[in-house]
Amino acid sequence: MRVRVSAPDRLEYRGCGSSPLPWLAVGVLVDYFAASSVELDRLDLSAGPAGSGWPHVDCKGWIDGLAGRIAELTGRDSSEFGDDFVVSVEADGPWLTRVRPEVALALAYVSDDRLAEYAEDELLDEHEADRYVQLRDLARSAGANGRDLYCWSSL
């Protein structure tokens, strides 16, 4: 299955947080990755970025999107960010959303010190703390290379 993005900014999901996923998080695969619209057209949606060999950050179980997490991390109100843009939604998945540029930008500007402080405050284990660093680095790379951040998820 190929993804065609004609005007993803015209489709917005409103509902369960910022994610079009079912509320059940058990076994939900979630990968964040960066892509241009041309690159995104080559994604095998059924395999996702991991199955397609694309660089990604594995965030299994994170069905509530990045906006709330980045709001906590940056001390901002999550309502400033809004919902992710829906790119592809099938009843049984997989699902693909584009992370709002405001969220990606806020994440990209988080310092190493703030990430370490947040990890300590939230009692994150090493794996979870590293996940935030990888996401921040992915957001920085995406911004520097004219790409958007996407969230792919599947049951």
Descriptive account of the structure:
This protein is α+β, with helices and mostly antiparallel strands and 155 residues long. It has a 5-stranded antiparallel β-sheet with strand order 2-1-5-4-3. The relative contact order is 0.24. The chain is globular. β3 and β4 (95-98) form a beta hairpin. It has helices at residues 37-40, 48-51, 67-74, 101-108, 112-121, 126-144, and strands at 29-35, 57-58, 85-89, 95-98, 148-154. It is 34% helix and 16% strand.
Which features does this protein show?
155 residues, alpha+beta, 5 strands
| Fraction in beta strands | 15-25%
The H/E string reads: EHHEHEEHHHE
Q: Based on helices, strands and strand pairing, what is the structural class? A: alpha+beta
N- and C-termini, Cα separation: 16 Å
How many helical elements?
A: 6
Radius of gyration: 15 Å
Largest sheet: 5 strands, antiparallel
| Sequence of strands across the biggest β-sheet | 2-1-5-4-3
**Shape assignment:** globular
Can you count the beta strands?
5
* Average pLDDT: 83
Low-confidence stretches: 1-25
What is the share of helical residues?
Answer: 25-40%
